[in-house]
Design goal:
By secondary structure, the chain is α/β, with parallel strands linked by helices. It has 24 helices and 18 strands. It has 4 domains: about 220 residues, P-loop containing nucleotide triphosphate hydrolases (Rossmann fold, 3-Layer(aba) Sandwich), CATH 3.40.50; about 90 residues, no CATH class; about 170 residues; about 200 residues, P-loop containing nucleotide triphosphate hydrolases (Rossmann fold). It has a 7-stranded parallel beta sheet, sandwiched between helices. A 7-stranded parallel beta sheet has the order 14-15-13-16-17-12-18. β8 and β9 form a beta hairpin.
């Protein structure tokens, strides 16, 4: 996009906004099934005015504009932002990036919303789905595994891991893999497959796919002999031609500073399901390193030396010695980690169930760990630089001598397979050694499975808002952040802090109420139990008895949401024989099959009850008879054992702040808003919510949460 003249852009902004809103009105009036809603129009108007104000491209002092919009269930937010933002982007000759948190919303946008808009909008536009490189096959890797690659790569037999707990023999696993790779190669040859993993009829095991997945570290890009017909780069070409790109939050944050997606200062951005942004930021900027599976370190010197030898290159360092020293340091750290975990948990190496976690208070490593972690950082940093330099030399050979392009691409792929492992060691050891005014969460974890111990070290920032402010919002010019659950306890304050948007003069917040009449369509009953919910055993027993009686009354569809697997298991085990057939439990089969079975039962006139955990409390759309009652077993407080939450609470206490009021209550309020939102999904629904936790009405913090929920008719029931 060419840079806009600042003065001209300021004058054009109101006009752009009016045109965008007119496009929204035209779409609503011309699309079958759309109905005009005041709230939806208010949201579209906010989107238009916000994005029209943002300066894109090169500006001496660009104006930024960000709107945070909570749109209640039924508002139709995707139609409100998509039609408006797309019309505005087309007029300003820029693009729209729509980021989501879930695959379900991506599919809705790509298969339903955007095709409908493309038909009803006056100006045509192209749209495409952006995926990470690892979703596409690397044809060069695949050719090698099916035996049509260069004979030179016999030395690169890959150690493909066996799935944990697999009952198959290694021979059977290899046969299955070979059959899979040959099938994929055939589909590519006859052009019946585009190389996108998600378009395969049967999804491969992740371990099988990893051997042929395209990866940045293993790709020579333009120097690869398969570059012109590369599945990933073909998809990138489609992205470059699209006016609208749909991505996810992980990819957007992972791509910052790269050219995978449009520059955020030169496009319009919409973050739908925006309440996930803080958690995604912590995932993206945290790091971990495996201290137990170190066989790859034995292969590293051989691989690097053989690659160098094949092309008459030099590594310039004694890689064998450094790799041996690194393995010794990692092994030493792993032993210390196991000793620390077992000392804290009272377990030992011979004991059963010797899993455990040790978090370091205030982010301070114990003195004995400093030396091995310092060694690991120095050694991995050195090896990573040698590996990077060798990769640059391999690419240079491919550029200078095209006859060796195939060999160079294969050699580079082998080096690239080592790069992410080294990178995780470099980043994690660096974070473990960091000290600052705001501590990091640092912990060690020991897990046992199938007779093997896995020891992992973790380090993670504790305040997502700081990360998003520094890395995301510093780049974004014009954005909409929207969701049905951005407020907690009736306020945007918690989300704005978590998302790094509080006290930002460029941010406006708008709450658009749902068009549903909750007082008429639904009710909320709070059951007053005898047991205190803080007394887990007594409370669970009483809650389960009450739940069994209430399930007896279910005539069509219902959903029960539990706060822990133990709680759900207690309820499942308490089911009397005559209720067993009507209850479907999360985890007993895939989510898709579970929901299909639930729908089939309800449609056939049979009662059906879903038992689920947190993931069933959000994004689950069960309109009408599919969910006429939502049972909430307990207020959804997060488990107190999460190391990042623990570290953050510890830091807040140290600086004189109250983590319960500042973090725990608002976070629980958001979850409760999501959970109660499963009940009423359309203007015609009638449903009830039954919560067994009396704290919702008997405590001040419970009433705070209640004030942020839809205006159901409220009543209480003694148990």
């Amino acid at each position: 996009m060419t840079s806009e003249n600042p003065a001209a852009a300021a004058l054009a902004a109101p006009t752009h906004a009016r045109h965008a809103l007119a496009a929204f009105d035209a779409v609503v009036n011309s699309t079958t099934g759309f109905r005009a809603r005041p709230g939806q129009h208010a949201m579209a108007e906010c989107v238009a005015n916000t994005l029209a104000r943002a300066d894109l491209g090169e500006h001496p002092t660009p104006t930024k504009a960000i709107a945070v919009i909570q749109a209640g269930t039924g508002v139709g937010k995707s139609a409100a932002y998509a039609s408006t933002a797309i019309a505005l982007a087309l007029e300003r000759k820029t693009r729209v990036l729509i980021s989501t948190a879930t695959v379900a919303l991506q599919e809705q946008l790509m298969t339903k919303d955007l095709p409908a808009l493309a038909q009803s909008m006056g100006t045509p536009f192209a749209y495409a789905l952006a995926k990470g490189r690892g979703r596409y096959v690397c044809k060069l890797k695949l050719e090698r595994l099916v035996g049509v690659g260069s004979a030179e790569d016999d030395m690169f037999d890959e150690d493909l891991p066996q799935p944990k707990g697999s009952a198959l023999s290694q021979e059977a696993i290899e046969e299955r893999r070979q059959s899979l790779y040959e099938s994929m190669a055939h589909k590519l040859a006859v052009a019946s497959w585009d190389g996108d993993r998600d378009t395969l009829a049967d999804q491969p095991d992740p371990r099988d796919w990893s051997a042929v997945a395209a990866e940045r570290h293993t790709c020579t890009a333009r120097h690869c002999p398969r570059y012109k017909d590369c599945s990933y780069y073909n998809a990138r070409t489609q992205l470059a031609e699209a006016n609208v790109i749909v991505a996810n939050h992980d990819l957007v944050l992972a791509s910052l500073g790269m050219k995978t997606l449009p520059d955020l200062d030169n496009c319009l951005v919409v973050f739908d399901e925006g309440h996930h942004l803080p958690a995604v930021a912590l995932d993206q900027f945290g790091s971990s390193m495996d201290l137990s599976n170190l066989r790859w370190l034995d292969k590293l010197p051989k691989t690097m030396n053989e690659v160098a030898g094949k092309l008459a290159l030099h590594t310039g360092e004694d890689v064998q010695t450094v790799a041996s020293q690194l393995k010794a340091a990692l092994t030493s750290l792993a032993r210390m980690a196991m000793d620390l975990v077992w000392a804290q948990t009272g377990k030992n190496a011979r004991g059963e169930g010797n899993d455990g976690t040790v978090r370091f208070a205030h982010g301070v490593l114990p003195e004995p760990l400093l030396e091995p972690v310092t060694q690991i950082h120095a050694q991995t940093s050195g090896l990573s630089k040698v590996l990077e330099a060798l990769g640059v030399d391999v690419k240079a050979v491919a550029k200078d001598d095209p006859s060796q392009a195939v060999l160079c691409a294969q050699l580079y792929a082998q080096l690239g397979g080592l790069a992410p492992r080294l990178a995780s060691l470099v980043s994690t050891s660096q974070l473990l050694l960091e000290h600052g005014e705001q501590p990091l969460a640092k912990w060690l974890k020991v897990e046992s499975e199938s007779g093997f111990l896995t020891v992992t070290a973790y380090a993670c920032p504790i305040v997502p808002g700081d990360l998003l402010r520094q890395f995301l919002w510093s780049q974004v010019r014009g954005a909409i952040v929207t969701s049905a659950s951005l407020t907690s306890c009736g306020s945007f304050d918690y989300f704005l802090k978590e998302a790094g948007l509080s006290n930002n003069p460029h941010v406006t917040a708008l709450e658009v109420d749902s068009p549903f009449d909750y007082a008429r369509q639904g009710s909320m009953t709070v059951v007053i139990t005898q047991a205190d919910p803080k007394n887990a055993d007594a409370y669970t027993a009483e809650m389960v008895r009450a739940l069994m009686n209430d399930i007896e009354q279910v005539q069509r569809g219902a959903l029960v949401l539990f706060t822990s697997r133990a709680q759900m298991r207690a309820a499942t085990e308490a089911l009397p024989g005559h209720l067993l057939d009507m209850v479907l439990v999360q985890g007993t089969q895939s989510r898709t099959r579970l929901l299909a079975a639930h729908a089939a039962r309800v449609e056939s006139g049979m009662p059906s009850v879903l038992f689920g955990l947190q993931s069933f409390g959000e994004g689950l759309d069960l309109p009408g008879a599919l969910c006429e009652t939502v049972f909430i077993a307990k207020l959804p407080f997060a488990p107190p054992s999460d190391p990042v939450d623990e570290a953050r609470a510890e830091w807040l206490k140290r600086v004189g702040r109250d983590p319960f009021n500042e973090l725990v209550i608002p976070a629980t309020g958001v979850k409760l808003l999501q959970w109660t939102g499963r009940a009423i999904r359309t203007e015609d629904d009638h449903a009830r919510v039954i919560c067994y936790d009396k704290r919702l009405v008997q405590t001040a913090y419970g009433r705070r949460m209640l004030s942020g929920l839809p205006a159901y008719r409220l009543d209480q029931r003694n148990n």
